[in-house]
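Check the record.
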Amino acid sequence: MKYGLIKTALFTAAGAALVKLSKKSIDIRRANSDIYQPSKDFFVDDNLNGKKIVFLGSSVTAGIAAKGISFVDFLRVEHGVHAIKEAVSGTTLADVNDKSYISRMKKNLNFDSHYDLFACQLSTNDQRDGVEMGRISKSYDAEDFDTQTTIGAIEYIAATVQDTWDCPLVFYTCLRKPEPEYEFLREKLFELQRKWHFAIIDIWNNKALKKMNEENPSFMLDDTHPTCAGYRYGWTPIFVKELDQMLE
């Protein structure tokens, strides 16, 4: 009798979990439906129109949880940004393979072009892949940095943007569940800001965005990756406001 009760309880719990998972899947599909995707019907005539901006990043910039759509595409379609979306999921800042931020920057970006702004995602993949953090250098010469470390890669990007395109540079952090290594990297980014004077859009510490996501669970696939609805109502307004101020 006791065994039967335990078995029933286990099946009930498993069934409830499946129902919850199924509802989450339905909500995510709905949050990626056409009504939340970028549309020219919502085009805004503003200061961002026609600005040529590079977005260098990984899965959050690529929009891996939103059918390949991210805040970059909202900026392009609804705010007229000439956006260069150089984003590949799972890639690192550190130059450890041919898909790293630095490798793709060298290979895919036009070093003779004019950019109004350069935006770079603070990747969450370096720590996941066990990349060495590195140390902040006293040098300002791109050739002096150890680009196989995360900090060395950030310094290389900052020096290259300054020397090659001479345009404003902004790094943006990502949402993550409590993770000491990413938090430490974020702290180092602020130290690097004092050296290189770039801007930071600190998504990681945006309390209003975190509250919005808690109230609307379908805005996020997981702790890091937004859906289309999450990009539309959460990320895009933040970037519109911050980038507009940088390009005044």
User: Anything to note?
Assistant: The CA atoms of residues 50 and 81 lie 5 Å apart. The two ends are 74 Å apart (CA to CA). Residues 2-31 form the longest helix (30 residues). Residues 7-19 have pLDDT under 50 and may be disordered.
